[in-house]
Amino acid sequence: MGGFILRFIVAEGSSRTPVHPLNLPLDDGRRLQASAGCVFPSPSRLAFVSMSLRIYNTLSRDLQPFAPLEPGHVRMYVCGMTIYDLCHIGHARMMMAFDVVQRWLKASGMRVTYVRNITDIDDKIIKRALERGITIRALTDEMTAAMHQDIGALHIEPPTLEPRATDYVPQMLGLISTLEHKGLAYRSPNGDVNYAVRKFPGYGKLSGKSLDELHAGERVAVLDGKDDPLDFVLWKAAKPTEPADAIWPSDFGPGRPGWHIECSAMSCQTLGESFDIHGGGADLQFPHHENEIAQSEGASGKPLARFWVHNGFVRVDNEKMSKSLGNFFTIRDVLQQYDAETLRFFIVRAHYRSALNYSDAHLDDARGALKRLYTALDAVPPADVQIDWAQPQAARFKAAMDEDFGTPEAVAVLFELATEINKTRSAALSGLLKALGGTLGLLQGDPKAYLQAGATLDDAAITALIDQRAAAKLAKNFAEADRIRQDLLAQGVVLKDGPTGTTWEVAA
Known about the structure:
Layout: E1 5-10, E2 22-25, E3 31-34, E4 46-51, E5 54-57, E6 62-65, E7 73-82, H1 89-107, E8 111-119, H2 123-132, H3 136-153, H4 169-181, E9 185-187, E10 193-195, E11 232-237, E12 255-257, H5 259-271, E13 275-281, H6 285-300, E14 305-311, E15 314-316, E16 319-320, H7 331-335, H8 340-348, E17 356-357, H9 360-379, H10 392-402, H11 407-424, H12 427-439, H13 447-452, H14 459-474, H15 478-490, E18 493-498, E19 501-506
Parallel strand pairs: 7-8, 7-13, 13-14, 15-17
Antiparallel strand pairs: 1-4, 2-3, 5-6, 9-10, 10-11, 11-12, 15-16, 18-19
Helix pairs in contact: 2-3, 4-5, 4-6, 5-6, 8-9, 9-11, 10-11, 11-12, 14-15
């Protein structure tokens, strides 16, 4: 069956349940040839639903059928923000990618425990707090609140758990002690505790390179006292210049945890030693995630995560968007020019693993495309429907999402539906459009409010001009009617004449 897992569900309230094409064995050895649209008799009211989700696994470098370790329950850990500044669009892309993942898992009937951490102790955090003359906690509390506000505007759902690194220092110290006892960690003369990379046989399996091919990553400082340049810091000895709130007591001496050990401790504590999905940006594949594997699996002897999932970069002028390059746009910057749903749609309609090219032109295009969908919903008020996944458009949507969360193809189905709605005026299809959009966090707003948002004139003034235009047309003063239309257009208001009267929206 090519990796497909099948389960029965009861089709409540229906005497006819469509099924997907199957070749089903019967008890007496015969086979039932079932095609799309065939039905089982009403007494059974049973239908097959294909649980066919495939996810690209960075660890295996291919698409693999997905089923959680615990049936019906997905445990997912995603590396979150190092919280010293406002979130930029690259961060939004990462959090949006895994928001869509968890939404689709839930839409597929799974219970999801989604953990996305906050790194609230780090060199950059210490530096920024000292620059501003405030405590580390004051800085990280401020930036965490700003992050929640920004991503909330984008309808990114909160994770199930959001652990802060500083709340898990005892667990980190316990993990470091385990690694030392197993001969995988050693103390340096400068007081640091380092991980001995060459003593972990599987190092390099995520990046796909041998130890000799690998090099120290951007955040792996090559310090005196290391046995190997690739060895990384588990515990950083305190320095005289560091503030007191950046120092913890330990059996290794006063200091603070290294970056990588944080996620190993938090993921293990919240999800167990082995879980289903570990996610993050592509830049974390090496060294961060490689080092997480070395730490966690070195300590437990168990696979950390079955699936490693990485989203692509946001690019500006063919360069990765990043704070270090100074070519980043904060979420707040963008939301001053574009509404939040347009930004969400811009990100979602690109596949999560692809590079996302950021520009005003691409956002303008996204806004125009989203307006097409809302125009269909505005023209035909949606019925309140439950998604029937056997319905042709819904089935294509599901097939797209089940193939590594294929949002470009899924969004294409939404536009197919919009076209059909405009032709058929079907409230059921309009309801399906809204419901499918909802699985991606889209199309849940009031259509008219979306189409009219950002108008420079208030509704009363526009309505008065529409009435004047109607009176001019009634008096056959078409020149005046055209003048009013053009004046409104010049102010960004587009009039639309229909059988029920004239409506308006903001020009794209």
